[in-house]
Amino acid sequence: MTVITAHGVTRRFGDVVALDDVSLDVGAGELVGLLGPNGAGKSTLLSLISGQRRPDSGTVRLLGGDPRDAASRIGLGITPQETGLPQTLRVGEVVDFVGGHFPAPMPTGELLDQFGLTEMARKQTGALSGGQKRRLAVALSLVGNPRVILLDEPTTGLDVGARQALWDAIRTYHAGGGTVLLTSHYLEEVQALAERVVVIDRGVVRADDTLDAILHQVSLRRVVVTCADDLSAWPGVARAEAAAPTAGSDGGMRQSLFTPDADALVRDLVRADVDFRDLEIRGASLEEAFEQMVEPESALEGASR
Question: Which DSSP letter does residue 76 get?
């Protein structure tokens, strides 16, 4: 069953085309990562799916209906990039208030415990740290026991521990049959959570496939060796990265060599009697895949975040 549908969607802001003939279907129970640099159109797409904006052309459906109808949104939870919380209300009061808009909300105590907010239940939201507010914002997306959640940069501003806790909460929700569509500029976040990846750049879908298939689209493999010689100009090496010299008498350098044929490169090094050790051959990371799928200037922008 398809729970989110966007067909031929275009959205402009003045002369800027934020989305250009975008189509996307998300099935029930999927966990989809929406990946792209700033300004790619990710947040605009979520705003159309959640009914906050209308497309200039094309159609959007949420749970079979128009996302601008309240009846369609009753099964939706959302965490936008920025959430305005009532500064003087206590955390528990905010959860109770939002939960009161749903027919079968999650018990407040259970939700606060899941997100590590129990001790803050009587604290005013205006006194929370940025990370605590972000945790509360994601918790609020789940208070109504929704069938679908939209998470726009859900862990921005969180430390590693808090990010892992939110990842666990998202996984738990998904394991229970929930559908998740999340955006992130943390490439490792998408790689850690998503089963399917949709890459958007300049308002256009560049790729839409399983995580494994996206990674396999990358033509280069990473060969990592420790060697005293600089191998960056070796035949077959498309580019190279070198780390700090390793400890030892030979002054070896840990080097990552990107090549389309890892087996041929290693054979050539052995035949040339190059003295290297600690060989590793790795598959592509999502970051490497992303950089090859988007326009060069956009990839640089995304990598810098």
Answer: E
- Average pLDDT over every residue of 117-139: 93
CB atoms within 10 A of CB 64: 12
Q: Give the chain's domains with CATH numbers.
A: 2-216 (3.40.50.300), 221-283 (3.30.70)
d(CA 280, CA 229): 17
CB 258 within 8 A of CB 221: yes
Q: Is the dihedral of CA 102, 5, 152, 13 positive or negative?
A: negative
Rounded CA gap, 211 and 199, in Å?
A: 11
Q: State how far the alpha carbon of 67 is from the alpha carbons of 12, 121, 269, 288, in Å.
A: 19, 32, 58, 35
Mapped onto helix, strand or coil, the DSSP state of residue 104 is: coil
Is-contact 72 63, C-beta < 8 A? yes
**Could you tell me which residues come within 8 angstroms of residue 122 by beta carbon, excluding any fewer than 6 positions away?**
90, 91, 92
Residues 6+ apart with CB under 8 A from 47: 53
As a dihedral over the C-alpha atoms of residue 234, residue 240, residue 246, residue 248, rounded to 10 degrees, the angle is 0
- What's this model's pTM, rounded to 2 decimal places? 0.79
Quick: pLDDT tens for 173-218.
Answer: 999 999 999 998 777 888 899 999 999 999 999 999 998 888 777 7
